[in-house]
Write a structure and sequence with these properties.
heterodimer, A: mainly alpha, MetI-like fold, B: alpha+beta, OB fold (Dihydrolipoamide Acetyltransferase, E2P), 2 domains, five-stranded antiparallel beta sheet, 8 helices, 21% helix
Chain lengths: 280, 394
């Protein structure tokens, strides 16, 4: 028994170290005073200051955030429509084909998506003169394409958990299908929409490969800038930047976790109260 | 229909008046799901103000029929008329019917009040009237104090009442109820049954109820339709269906019944004599039934219509009829008690009348007594009146 517990704790420690060790060392080295990334020379916040003066990194970060917001919004809109079609419209001609098309981008290598979209944009530019140049617009289109697939899957699975009879009840009470969608379906799948939006936002912010293919001069996203910096040798500013991103993500995860926990607790208490009042 | 049930002219029985047009007319409706025929050429006429039950085991097509009335499914062939209006091609949101769903289908993100108001809002009812009508509906189901609650803050019984208020607030011509009481516990179900009946009587709305619970159907309905494999087997008032089932299926499905196989021996003026080899004697059945001599039939007798008494000393077997009581009247059978179930208000006896053929007998416990007049392994005599039995040919 004792040996077993020891084994479990060791396994846990190794697992955590494997997952979070690199991130921890990155955070520690971001406070390194030395110019050499791997040599510790005392505590300093110097690289954070450098980072704030780095125009290139800041503009790339701002571009990435703008792209991610637009992409997430487009992807949620299109993905919800696709998810609705898959979950609610029963069997229609080409349903299987459509399902395949939707899930395709999930399993397709990024390189192939990137190349094919680049080819599409080049051909389109020659044929109809649009897009005249590649940049933010083409990155948004490319990201929205594959993010939409993720949203569709998330929305579809949430919809299959929503009782159909609620939508039928609304229709029975006189609401037309569009009204039913906005007053009943949408509020019920709102958690999936939020999750899909956040997922798309992260995927877009994170993407390097596809963006590299479809971006043009002067429109480098944050991952592209970091990657090019690292190729010329790792700079301590990259560590600082990464630490900030890790901090933001951790904060968001903790806050959402606490909020969800509280909501669930309140719900449980409500149910208990209702049961008690009913005399169970 | 039997003469005895046609009495009481003061009772509201619109289905007997041939001059009245039925309010809901289901006309030869068939619904096909791929290879499966859920509803098979069903024709039903339901009158205004009725509380009509569709009764059947699961998968008999009753819910599909209800969903076609609501407009969620469309008949493969045939048509449905409500108040003389053909419903073919009319979508659910334009029909003058409302439905109460089995799981209630309350909107979880809206309060009780908003749930009830939803239907009125779709009709563009203005604020003051809206408020008043929602208030009235909640008053009717005694949920006024819970108006601001969300559905998950309510008990099962309260949710059921919200669903009822929500489906009645639009004053539909027809209210469809899908297993309205199935999710409630026994005590609450009994109370709610009467509430439903009172509300229906008060508002005069035509109710169509789908249920698999025969007791529920018997209590609630003015008339009911027994369904089996997509078809209506019998339509009638609860007492018609209970006392005069048309087929073995209906007889067996509603309540318990003893089905005794036999062959018609003689057709007399008053009734028929049926030879029943399982009982080893002849049974006399009165009442009009079209049978000929030699036809194989089934004699159906309800357990409560049989009397059980201890076998008096000296009664012995008769020549050629080993189970008949000597010199006794017809419809008298000797047997041995195999099982006694004490239910408080009544007792159920299972009596072996030879070769393990069991007859079920129910006796009300009229006297307060701890001792049983008839107990396990007692020799008994079962008797019933000639008009207690019923001959079934199908």
């Amino acid at each position: 028994m004792r040996g077993r517990t020891f084994f479990l704790y060791t396994a846990l420690a190794f697992g955590l170290a494997f997952l979070y060790g690199p991130i921890l060392s990155l955070v520690i080295y971001s406070f390194n005073a030395s110019e050499l990334v791997t040599v510790w020379a005392g505590f300093s916040t110097r690289w954070y200051g450098e980072l704030l003066r780095d125009r290139q990194v800041l503009s790339a970060a701002w571009l990435s955030v703008r792209i991610a917001v637009v992409v997430a919004t487009i992807a949620v809109t299109l993905g919800t429509l696709a998810g609705m079609a898959l979950a609610r419209h029963g069997r229609f001609l080409g349903r299987t084909f459509f399902t395949g098309l939707i899930t395709g981008p999930l399993v397709m290598p990024d390189v192939i998506i990137g190349i094919s979209l680049l080819l599409l944009f080049v051909t389109l530019a020659e044929a109809i003169g649009w897009p005249a140049s590649r940049g933010m617009n083409t990155i948004i289109i490319a990201h929205a394409t594959f993010c939409m697939a993720y949203v569709a899957v998330v929305v579809q699975s949430r919809l299959s958990g929503v009782d159909r009879s609620m939508e039928e009840a609304a229709m029975d009470l006189g609401a037309r299908p569009v009204k039913v969608f906005f007053t009943i379906t949408l509020p019920l799948i709102a958690p999936a929409l939020i999750a899909g939006w956040l997922l798309s936002f992260t995927l877009s912010l994170d993407d390097l490969v596809i963006a590299s293919f479809v971006s043009g001069p002067g429109s480098s996203t944050l991952p592209m800038v970091i990657f090019s910096k690292v190729r010329l040798g790792v700079e301590p500013t990259v560590n600082a930047l990464a630490t900030i991103i890790v901090g933001i993500v951790t904060f968001a995860v903790v806050v959402s976790g606490v909020l969800m926990h509280r909501a669930e607790k309140r719900r449980q208490a409500d149910i208990q109260n209702a049961m008690r009042e009913a005399g169970y | 229909m039997p003469e005895t049930l046609r009495a009481r002219p003061e009772k509201h029985q619109p289905w007997l008046d041939a001059s009245l047009r039925p309010y809901i007319h289901i006309d030869a409706v068939t619904k096909q799901f791929g290879e499966f025929r859920a509803v098979d050429r069903t024709t039903l006429e339901i009158h205004r103000g009725e509380l009509f039950c569709l009764l059947g085991a699961s998968g008999c097509g009753k819910t599909t029929l209800l969903r076609m009335l609501a407009g969620f499914e469309h008949p493969t062939s045939g048509r449905i008329l409500i108040d003389g209006q053909d419903m073919t091609g009319v979508p659910a949101y334009d029909r003058p019917v409302n439905m109460m769903f089995q799981n209630y289908a309350l909107f979880p993100h809206m309060s009780v009040e908003q749930n009830v108001a939803y239907g009125l809002k779709q009709d563009g009812v203005r604020k003051p009237e809206l408020k008043q009508r929602v208030g009235e509906a909640l008053e009717m189901v005694q949920l006024g104090p819970w108006a601001k609650r969300k559905p998950h803050q309510l008990s099962g019984g309260q949710r059921q009442r919200v669903a009822l208020a929500r489906s009645l607030v639009k004053r539909p011509k027809v209210l469809l109820l899908d297993e309205p009481l199935a999710a409630l516990d026994k005590k609450l179900r009994e109370r709610t049954q009467f509430e439903l009946m009172n509300i229906q009587e008060e508002l005069g709305v035509t109710f169509v109820v789908v249920t698999h619970d025969q007791e529920e159907a018997m209590t609630l309905s003015t008339r009911m339709a027994v369904m089996e494999r997509g078809q209506v087997v019998q339509v009638g008032t609860p007492s018609e269906i209970y006392e005069f089932p048309a087929t073995r299926f209906t007889a067996d499905f509603i309540g318990s019944i003893n089905l005794i196989e036999g062959r018609v021996k003689r057709v007399e003026a008053a009734g028929v004599l049926v030879a029943a080899p399982q009982l080893g004697c002849d049974l006399e059945v009165t009442g009009a039934t079209q049978v000929r001599e030699g036809q194989s039939v089934c004699v159906a007798i309800r357990p409560e219509k049989i009397a059980v008494a201890p076998n008096a000393e000296g009664a012995g077997p008769e020549e050629g009829a080993p189970n008949a009581v000597r010199g006794g009247a017809r419809n008298s059978v000797r047997g041995t008690v195999r099982d006694v179930a004490y239910l408080g208000d009544s007792s159920v006896f299972r009596v072996d009348v030879g070769e393990g053929f069991l007859i079920e007998v129910t006796q009300p416990n009229l006297l307060r007594s701890l001792e049983r007049k008839v107990d396990w392994d007692d020799a008994v005599v079962l008797t019933w009146r000639a008009d207690a039995g019923l001959i079934l040919t199908e």
